[in-house]
Amino acid sequence: MHADPEVGTGAAGHNSDFPWDEFDSQSYYRHNYRTIRDDDRAILGEVRDFFSSFGDRSGLKGLDVGTGANLYPALALLPLCDEITMWEYSESNVVWLRRELRGYSGFLDAALKVLTGRGLGYSRTWDAFWEVLCEKGLYGGVDDPRKTLKARARVCRSSIFELPPQQWDAGTMFFAAESLTGDEGEFESAVQCFLGALRPGAPFVIASMENSQGYTVGKYRYPAVAIEEDDLRKMLKDRATGTSVRHIESDGSLRTGYSGMILARGILRE
Ligand SMILES: C[S@@+](CC[C@H](N)C(=O)[O-])C[C@H]1O[C@@H](n2cnc3c(N)ncnc32)[C@H](O)[C@@H]1O
């Protein structure tokens, strides 16, 4: 069963009830990431400092789950990882991601290269996000992030519930587990699948919408579980060390129906 266009099922429903393959990636990208907002800037700063504290590690295998039309979690993993898997379920998002990583094609490509000297790769939008990452830490050491991300990222079309266990050394999951279902049990299982895919000792970051009532992308309504900081704290208590879970203020300009964001980070227990 698919969510009814326009009307939808609000925040309720299971993951399989929603039209993920029809996710309007371009509209989502334009609405959320065309310009950098203060909440994303705050998240990026914290993630940058956290991952930079693992500067003694390199050549890791990184995982970003539910990547959608957002490259900044993968950019945050870039200095630590020589391979980044973008684990995404929606066909439309997979197509969007592959194209975005590749850059423009054909004549426009060639013309851009001649005019700007810039290689192929993601659009200029992400430069503002990369600049925040470069303010401190390891990121300035990445030579050409456009080329490097293109070379290191691999887009894999599959569900979070199909993630293999203990395969990755560092992980990010942004606005996915609580925003892919309206069912609390399914949300918890999604978080466990993400954590289960990491190896003991792996640093990870989970960003979530707080108290989300669901969201509209294009003509469809998508679900959410209205989580709070304590929900994540409880779930991470026995799974991670060095845990921090905190509220990120949002000015409400993104949309209505949520009370901010939650940023959780830690290291998977040995
Ligand atoms: C609200 S979007 C978040 C996208 C992006 N990570 C961001 O930070 O903006 C939710 C994402 O979860 C993905 N998703 C939905 N069901 C999924 C599943 N079963 N497994 C993995 N990803 C899924 C959607 O396709 C979408 O990309």
Question: Could you describe the 3D structure shown?
Answer:
With 270 residues, this protein is of the alpha/beta class. The protein has a single domain, classed as 3-Layer(aba) Sandwich (Rossmann fold). It is 34% helix and 21% strand. It has nine helices and nine strands. It has helices at residues 25-33, 38-52, 72-77, 91-102, 106-116, 125-134, 145-152, 184-196, 229-237, and strands at 60-65, 81-88, 153-157, 170-174, 203-210, 215-217, 220-222, 240-248, 260-268. The strands form two sheets. It has a seven-stranded mixed sheet, with helices on both faces. Helix 2 (38-52) crosses helix 6. The chain is globular, with a radius of gyration of 18 Å. The model is unreliable at 1-9 (pLDDT under 50). The structure holds S-adenosylmethionine (SAM). S-adenosylmethionine binds next to loops.
Uncertain residue ranges: 1-9
Strand residues, percent? 15-25%
CATH class: Alpha Beta
Please count the helical segments. 9
Write the CATH architecture name.
3-Layer(aba) Sandwich
Q: On the 0-100 scale, what is the average pLDDT?
A: 92
- Spatial separation of the terminal alpha carbons: 41 Å
The total count of strands amounts to 9
Shape: globular
CATH fold-level assignment: Rossmann fold
Please write the string of helix (H) and strand (E) elements.
Answer: HHEHEHHHHEEHEEEHEE
Percent of residues in helices: 25-40%
Radius of gyration: 18 Å
- Biggest sheet character: 7 strands, mixed
CATH superfamily descriptor: Vaccinia Virus protein VP39
Structural class: alpha/beta
How many domains in all?
A: 1
Query: Ligands in the structure?
Result: S-adenosylmethionine
Strand order of the largest sheet: 3-2-1-4-5-9-8
